[in-house]
Here is the input.
Amino acid sequence: MSHNTFGHLFRVTTWGESHGPALGCVVDGCPPGLALTEAEIQHWLDRRRPGTSRFVTQRREPDAVRILSGVFSDERTGGQITTGTPISLMIENVDQRSKDYSDIARQFRPGHADYAYFAKYGVRDYRGGGRSSARETAARVAAGAVARKVLGEGVRIRAALVRIGSEAIDPRRWDWDATEQNPFWAPDPEAAARWETYLDGLRKDLSSVGAIVEVHAEGVPAGWGAPLYGKLDAELASALMSINAAKAVEIGEGFAAAALSGQENADEMRMGPDGPVFASNHAGGILGGISTGQTVIARVAFKPTSSIPTPRLSLDETGAEVEVRTTGRHDPCVAIRAAPVAEAMTACVLADAFLRHRAQTGGGAFVPGQSGRR
Here is the structure.
């Protein structure tokens, strides 16, 4: 019962460690007949890949994915399609530097999972944190590429970095196109320029910082999710919270809703030509655990990178007090590469919700003013 699997009908099991020979995932529950190639998965992995700017770890990993099972090259259709059987994906590790961690082989890094893993298992992989390393998220991004295929082009999932430390974007300048034009996935170009100076200063100070990623899922139909124990927002919060270094998740207004009045928080509705039209989206596209047809919006907060070269007080495995200083290659802000991961986890949750909804209801949704399901 190691809990390396998530999802219900669309199930993902990830495997591998940061400094092992490879890592990957097995995706079970993907419907048959979907076009799927390594190149299509690689597109999403390249967005998360390390070493792409001076603001992220300089570990040089191509993150080249291989599909080992679950697809078939059908001469009749002229393409490679899913078969409905488990899809196994593998990504080799090629640029490990395990010697960088020899000094902390018996020491617990403050703020890291070292001690928690050791307390649970009595053994830990100190090389880059092993299973607790953010390197594991490459497998999630690969799985997310499969999930996007299940969802189709009607659902669009995008994420952006909206805050680094105390430096936030100006929401009035939000531009989705800008997220592809700077190394931070920032929707505000002016904020991205400030962040460069901010992070350069942090690196010189041998420190790190946390950040917030916001993810939007557009085109999600009304009706996905379930009351009480299968809430779409609960599933989404769980998936986002499972990302390495995540410490908080909110849906829609989130914690800010506690400061609103009932009148302010209620998303008023009017009838439009194709169904309900909402005047606002404080609920983040989910009410009662079920999607409303509005954009699903979530935010996830990430803590500062724990592996820093500044000496910190801690303990070793014998209980002796030590001073820990972590060398090696690390992100000054681990959340910079978290936007593609948040997108992938959202895609997996929504693909699972879609398949579960289709299994229970046939896939349609009731629309006010219209007969039957749409």
